[in-house]
Specification:
- With 552 residues, the chain is of the alpha+beta class.
- The protein folds into 3 domains: 259 residues, Orthogonal Bundle (GROEL, domain 1), CATH 1.10.560; 99 residues, GROEL, domain 2; 142 residues, 3-Layer(bba) Sandwich (GroEL).
- It contains 17 helices and 23 strands.
- Strands 11, 12, 13, 14, 15, 16 and 17 form a 7-stranded mixed beta sheet that branches.
- The protein is elongated.
- The relative contact order is 0.19.
Length: 552
Amino acid sequence: MTNGNLQFGGQPIFILADGSTRNRGKDAQKNNIAAAKAVADAVRTTLGPKGMDKMLVDSIGDITITNDGATILDEMQIEHPAAKMMVEVSKTQDKIVGDGTTTAVVIAGELLKKAGDLLDQNIHPTVITKGFRIAKLKALEVLEKMAKPVNINDTKILQQIATTAMTGKSAEKASEELSGIAVEAIKKIADVNGDVVVVDSDNIKIEKKEGDSINDTKLIDGILIDKEIVHSGMPKKKKDAKIALLNCALEIKDLESDAKISIDSPEKMQAFLDEEQKTLKNMVNKIINSGANVVFCQKGIDDTPQHYLAKAGIIAARRVKKSDIDALARATGASIINNVNDLTAEDLGYAGIVEERRVAGDQMIFVEECKQPKAVTILIRGGTEHVIDEVERAMEDAVKGITSALELGKVVPGGGATEIHVAKLLRKYADGLKGREQLAVNAFAEAVEVIPRSLAENAGMDPIDIIANLRAHHDKENSEMIGVDIFTGEVVDMFTKGVIEPLKIKLQAIKSAAESAEMILRIDDTISAGASEKGMPAGMPPAGGGMPPGMM
């Protein structure tokens, strides 16, 4: 049987379409492992405080400069099917936790590399996957045991989590101010019910504008709307604002396409126009009678209502995004109204000040000094577009990192301390196992150590010396917090140093890395339908493994 085709008595029987190719057995496994490893190697150099950045240029020449694993893998044009599964690891990590994407992908790549060595020793993939599964469960158990508690009042620890998430990115030089902003924002929007803290990071709106420096980034106790006041006759500032949020248009609806109005005299025409004016004026009167002095409308506002609102001294903005209207409702306490006739004083929200200001050449409306805002805005500033893009990614990592820490209420040390401790206990656990699974558990332990090894390599240190030093320290009692200080090369207590990460990041990284490695290892047959223009199988690497042209 060749390339999926059967042969009996010299007569071939074709079961695959012409041009299809098939890769089986060890060849398929090695190709998949090589592809997955190439993806891990692409992001490995970005890991840690001394990690390097990648410049990604898309087909139309737009540039992205980042060391955020999720962004790098999202921008890379990856074709190989096994490599795409590694990208899924990154996306899952980013979606569920928001940080630790590089860690997850690097561990997955190293697991597959170690699995490849075991395959060369003729150990069956089923045995390897079983060993990985056992090791994963044990690793998760170890992580849970070594974690320390944290709550929303531990401001210093929360700031250290935010700083750890930002370290190594462009925002690092202002990480002290930015981490303070991230913690303050989380505290404002968090719902605390006894010991249970619920944080929805979507309630923190991140707005970015070029100009000034990263240090000028600030937290707004309310919402920043990227719109301008709709009429030049309206005031630009309103104190003690009573805010109405409308999900309806302040204009006359157009007639249905097949509807007609018959007007046979100038008087009827005038009556029709007067009625329109009266309807529009009634709409405005409803707003005035409610006591509102600021209106945010999700839909359009006609010229006539604009004029009447301006005469009444009311600020209005139109075509405001639904997400901004929802955020305004949470920040000001206003109700979103679907029909202006239903608007009452009880539906209005409050803000200490609503003002239109110019930011980086654009007019923006600041809704500030809300009483107890459950939605806030972080306005990010920076010298260039690429700088603020990277600061935005760093701020998102910090916010999501704090959210993850509060969600489980547990944190673990960074700097490779967690991985070295997990590896040490996995080796001890493997000694009690019988059969070949012991080899797979030991391989898992070695794979996890890729994190401190990569941290050391990226900082220009000798990884062998660092790993040996860490292992020696972890052989002592109560040493699970000992990690590597990348800036000095010494091994120290990471909690004392303030290098702290949420437990959820580590749990998810181990889960997704182990599960994707298991899935890739179980594939022993890759069938590719159709051929590319150059005669190469679509989505398959060239002979000998490795990555296809154009993967990056």
